[in-house]
Each structure stands twice: as C-alpha cells, then as structure tokens.
Amino acid sequence: MKVKRIGVLTGGGDAPGLNPAIKGLVYRASDHGISVIGLYDGWRSLLDPPLETWPLDRETVRRWDRDGGTNLGSSRTNPFKAPNEAGERVDRSDEVIKNMEKLGLDALVACGGEDTLGVAARLTQKGVPVVGVPKTIDKDLAGTDYTLGFDTALRNVTEIIEWSRNPAGSHGWVQVIEVMGRHAGHLAFWSGVAGQADLILIPEHPFSYAKVFALLRERMGDPNRLTRDPRRPRYSVIVVAEGAYAEDGQIVTLDDRQDAFGHARLGGIGEILARKIREETPYDARSAAIGHPQRGGHPSPIDRIMGLSFGARAADAIAAGDFGKMVSARGIAPSFELSLVDLGIVVGNLNTLDVARYYDTERYHAKNLGM
C-alpha cells in the first residue's frame, strides 16, 4: 500500500518534545511525498464530530520545535471505553476506523504514553496502520530507554528543589516536594539526585514513616539547641513521587473519580507526610505539590533532539509500511540508537526504577552517587 496521507495525534498528558516530534514527522514525511493532517485532542478527534483537522506542512510547523506542550491539544479519551449519546461507556473503536476513511487517512501516528499507545496497539489488532511515538514525563514506558518530556520535567523539578532550599534553610523546616510518578519513580529519583534532596520516596519501594522521622533527627538534631552548630544543617528537603506510599498505607488519591483508562487522580502524599512530620517530630514542615507546571516550559535540548528524531523515524516506518510499531531509543542521551518495537510491548508492562542498582532502601536516597 502506498501511503499518501496520514494523521497525527497526541494523547494523555502534555509533554515538552511533542511539538518537535510533530515537526520531525512533517519534515521527513514530506521527503517521502506523504501529507500530514493534525488531529485535535487525541483519540477524541476520531470520535466526536465535527472532525477537526489541521493540515500540517513545513511552513506551518517550522517553529514548533521551540514550543512546549502540544499544539494539537490532548485528551484522555479511550475509544474502547468512550461515552455514547446515553452517557454509557462503550466500545466505539469502529468509529475511529470509519472516521479515518472519511478523512482519507492511510495511517496514523499516535504520540503518547501507556494508555494512548495501548489504544494504538488494540487498533493495530483491528487492522489499523499505526506507528507510536513514546511520550511521558514518568519515563515508565516499556521497550525504550527514553520518552519525550522526561528531560525537561527533570530540569524543571531540579530547579524547584534548589529554589526550595532558600526558604527551608532560612526558617529551619522540612520541605516536602511532591512530583509526578504514578508507578515509576524515575522523575522523583533523578531530580532528587540532581537537586541533592536528603530523602527520596518512590513508588517502587514502600517507605516507613518511623524511618523517615529517624533520618530527619539524624540530619537535623535538636531544633531547640541554644547554640547553633554551623556544621549541622537546620533544614531538610524530601522529594516524594505522587505514587509513593507507606508500608502500612496505600496510594493516596485526590478523589474517587477515575478516567477512561481506570486511573484515579493521585496526589496528597506530600501533604500527609508534612503533616505527620509536624505532629510526630519536633520539626516544622511544609509541602509543595508541583502539579502540572513541572511538565511545562520550552523543551530542553534533549527533548528537542529526541522529538525531531522520533518524529522522523516514525515517518520512515510509515513510508516502509512498518506498522504496529513504536519508535524506541536505546543508549545514552542524546546519541540514542533508534529502532522499532512492537506496540504490544507497552501493554501491561512498565519501565520502573532499578531499585537494586540505584536506590538505598535503608537511607531512602541514591547509593553510590554522592548522596
């Protein structure tokens, strides 16, 4: 089949690197004589009329590599569990196929994380020609060493950790910083290493409140001492992933609602930890849940390079008729080796932090990395 016209969409949470990926796709696709149509708001674009599209050419996307977020918009729509006119969640995946035909699309490029690419994998089984581009600041996708958005989020969170030291040190309190990371602690861990946080709590290893309190006492000593020891710090910084939980507890959620993929909204573990520190230790504590700004801002150089590279590789795969695949990066940034892996590899699999290699489960921070 000669591919002449393709659609591209971005699903799930926005991430720096998506716009560079779209630019890389459009530029390389034009080399192959393939036109690209932007689809608004993820999988929703192929379900709800009117079908909003944006013809993309080199001039349109020329400056997109400088933009954070996604210029095509996004959503957490699941075509296999989408609301119908009665408000019931049903399988509407056949509408995706029909609407692709209406738009004259020969193939799709889906940029997203485990949910967006999980939909792509299921559509592949129904005969839809799809190529995936990995995106998530959690860096938890199986089959690749890099996902778009991670490096920029790492930069952002590291800066916030550094900025938090000033008020914490001035007032002598414990600063708890809650960052994203549902199942994987890559962002919390590596930002904690870069920002030299005193404790790092991740989803891969349940923590003990008693142990946290003991480590704080070991670092900060008696807050009521009459004379200050300049060699002993008066403050601490703790980085905690939103999916981290205590040994005697469970993952903390904001409410009981779930999205179309069955995910609850995580958040609140940072405030709970800060409150327990205030109640059960002699130290004052503050919490800051960074939220969505941690994935904001302009893409880092790594995310620009990887976005352009991922997009171009996706266009090559489509031109070669190599569907049902996700672009994968192996190696060390920015000179990754790109390849293609089956989309099915992302379904039910996660790339979590190698606790045995990197994480000190007794000290709750990095081992052999200067901490």
From TrEMBL:
Keywords in alphabetical order: Cytoplasm, Glycolysis, Kinase, Magnesium, Metal-binding, Transferase
Gene Ontology biological-process annotations: canonical glycolysis; fructose 1,6-bisphosphate metabolic process; fructose 6-phosphate metabolic process
Enzyme class: transferase
Pathway: Carbohydrate degradation; glycolysis; D-glyceraldehyde 3-phosphate and glycerone phosphate from D-glucose: step 3/4
Pfam family, one: PFK
The enzyme's E.C. designation: 2.7.1.90
GO cellular component, one term: 6-phosphofructokinase complex
Annotated region described as Disordered, given as residue ranges: 67-88
Cofactor: Mg(2+)
GO molecular function: 6-phosphofructokinase activity; AMP binding; ATP binding; diphosphate-fructose-6-phosphate 1-phosphotransferase activity; fructose-6-phosphate binding; identical protein binding; metal ion binding; monosaccharide binding
Segments forming domain Phosphofructokinase: 5-318
Family: Belongs to the phosphofructokinase type A (PFKA) family.
Alphabetized NCBIfam families for the sequence: PRK03202.1
Protein name per its UniProtKB record: Pyrophosphate-dependent phosphofructokinase
